[in-house]
Amino acid sequence: MIILVMGLPGSGKSYFANTLAKRLGADYFKSDEIRKQLDLRGKYTKKDKFLVYRELFDQAKTAIKDGKSVVLDATFYLREMRGLFFRLAKRKKIACNAFLIQAEEQLILERLDRPRTDSEAGVKVYRKIKEIFDPVEEPHLKIESTDSNIEEMIQRAISYIKWGYV
Length: 166
Known about the structure:
By secondary structure, the chain is an alpha/beta fold. It has seven helices and five strands, in the order βαβααβαβααβα.
C-alpha cells in the first residue's frame, strides 16, 4: 500500500505521517530527509524538486517490491508529482490512499515561527506553495490538524484506509 501525506509547510503532515507509519508498521519516507541525502538543502529549482521526488519514488518502489507498505511525506503540491505514485500503485495493483493535511493559517504561521530541525520551509515558502498548490483531484481525505488531535487524525486515516470513508 502507498500512503501519500500531503499539505502545506507547517500543516502538521510530518508529525501525522510519522505517527501513522509507526501505527501501521509501514516504511516512512520524508522528502526533507531525501533532500538532505541528495545534498540538495537550499536548492529549490524545479529540477532539484523533481530529483527529490524521483528519489522518493525510487525508495518507495524498492520498499513496495520488498512487500512493504509505505507512508510518503511531502507537500505533493503539483499534480504531476502525485501522479507518479498513483500510477505506481495502479501498475503494482496496490492501494494508494492520500491524505491532505490542513490547519488554520494562524496555527501554521505559529508552527513555522518555531525552530524546526528537518524542514527549511518558512513563511515565505508556505505562501509561495499555497499560491501554486494544484487542486487535489485524486481520491483523498482532508484531515484538519490542531496541536492536540493526533489520535483523532490517526483514527480517521485508519478508517479511511480500511473502509474508504470516515
